[in-house]
């Protein structure tokens, strides 16, 4: 009998101006177009950052005493430091995550009003991803800064004066990763705003 | 089952007073009691972490060649490393932030249904604080790990075998800061859940 009838009535009641929504302009807004664009930006920045970091290898001839015989070739590679390995892993996870959620975002985009459950779920995953990325940027940033400035108290010498190309790659990668972290924070804010608009 | 459920919802919507809520069980839930407790935990962990980090100073007699004349006293202090200074600043900001929002949370606790705007505002500030704390934990963790393990590729020697007390303090502080970051993430999830419950 009346299942469809009832659903229809329910829909009518729900979309009627005097019902649940205090705003009169129909269903709650769907911000999944902006969501999709932000996730695309996240993917692009994470992938570029990953490539820049992985291709940062640099070989330099280091003079060693006694001269003129002492000279060795030493590399600088991202995987010599656990901090940069952590950033590479975080960027890889963020890239895969952005692809997965982009597909999801694309599927939800056309719906008139995606369920609040979806938005809540996205907030949880986005904030976890944002926290991981922020900590990875912090870790790599700390080691990168040490490479640039050194630390006289612990006798940790800087290496950026020798490995210029490596440091430029690392710096570019960290800036792009920071950008990716900011996008993840914005994604949480966007989903929260969408929920906020629905609860008005 | 579905039909009765639907009828119930329909009845509720039909008979609900013109309050704007579509659910039958009165005003949306108020989770500010949990919010307050989480902020109290945040304050406690941030303050303890701050005190542990600031009191980490250790002086050690270091033998220097040529022996037996060479012996100097060298300190290990948190402010010798920009990473630990960053963590101290982040913890200080988090402590002040938790006090401010605790007062706010306390004021809102008694209201039957705090406005969605308040929850959205809290999400924005909480996620910014969470990102700052996560990056600070990452930075300090990276430097702490370097102190523990060293890095043979860059000739950065570990110092935790000499400055044991300093390293224990730093490790305890980092673990507590990580705990504080997790609480901040939980606070965002709680506010988002509250918004989600309201939008149902």
Give a verbal description of the structure:
The structure is a homodimer of 200-residue chains. By secondary structure, chain A is mainly alpha-helical. Chain A is elongated, with a radius of gyration of 25 Å. The longest helix of chain A is centred in the last third of the chain and has 36 residues. The N terminus of chain A is likely disordered. A two-stranded antiparallel sheet of chain A has the order 1-2. Chain A has one domain. The interface between A and B is large, with 62 and 62 residues.
Key words describing this protein structure:
homodimer; 200 residues; mainly alpha; two-stranded antiparallel ribbon; 6% strand; elongated; disordered N terminus
Helix content of chain A: 55-70%
Domain unit count of chain A: 1
Would you identify the regions of chain A where 5 or more consecutive residues have pLDDT less than 50?
A: 1-24
Distance between the termini of chain A: 34 Å
Structural category of chain A is mainly alpha
- Please tell me how large the radius of gyration of chain A is: 25 Å
Order of helices and strands of chain A: HHEEHHH
Q: Assembly type of the shown chains?
A: homodimer
In DSSP terms (H or I, runs of 4 or more residues), the helix count of chain A works out at: 5
Question: Average pLDDT value of chain A?
Answer: 85
Number of strands of chain A: 2
The strand line-up of the biggest sheet of chain A is: 1-2
Biggest beta sheet summary of chain A: 2 strands, antiparallel
Structural shape of chain A: elongated
Greatest contact between two chains: A-B, 62 and 62 residues
Strand content of chain A: 5-15%
């Amino acid at each position: 009998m009346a299942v469809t009838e009832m659903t229809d009535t329910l829909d009518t009641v729900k979309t009627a101006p005097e019902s649940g929504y205090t705003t009169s302009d129909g269903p709650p807004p769907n911000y999944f177009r902006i969501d999709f664009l932000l996730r695309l930006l996240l993917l692009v920045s994470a992938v570029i950052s990953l490539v820049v970091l992985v291709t940062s290898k640099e070989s330099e001839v280091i003079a060693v005493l006694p001269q003129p015989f002492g000279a060795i070739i030493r590399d600088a590679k991202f995987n010599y430091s656990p901090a940069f390995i952590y950033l590479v892993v975080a960027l890889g996870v963020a890239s895969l995550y952005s692809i997965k959620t982009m597909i999801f975002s694309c599927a939800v985009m056309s719906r008139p009003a995606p369920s609040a459950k979806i938005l809540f779920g996205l907030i949880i995953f986005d904030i976890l991803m944002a926290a991981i990325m922020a900590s990875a940027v912090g870790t790599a940033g700390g080691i990168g800064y040490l490479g640039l400035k050194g630390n006289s108290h612990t006798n940790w010498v800087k290496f950026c004066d020798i490995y210029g190309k490596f440091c430029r790659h690392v710096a570019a990668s960290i800036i792009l990763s920071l950008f990716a972290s900011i996008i993840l924070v914005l994604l949480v804010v966007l989903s929260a705003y969408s929920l906020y608009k629905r609860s008005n």
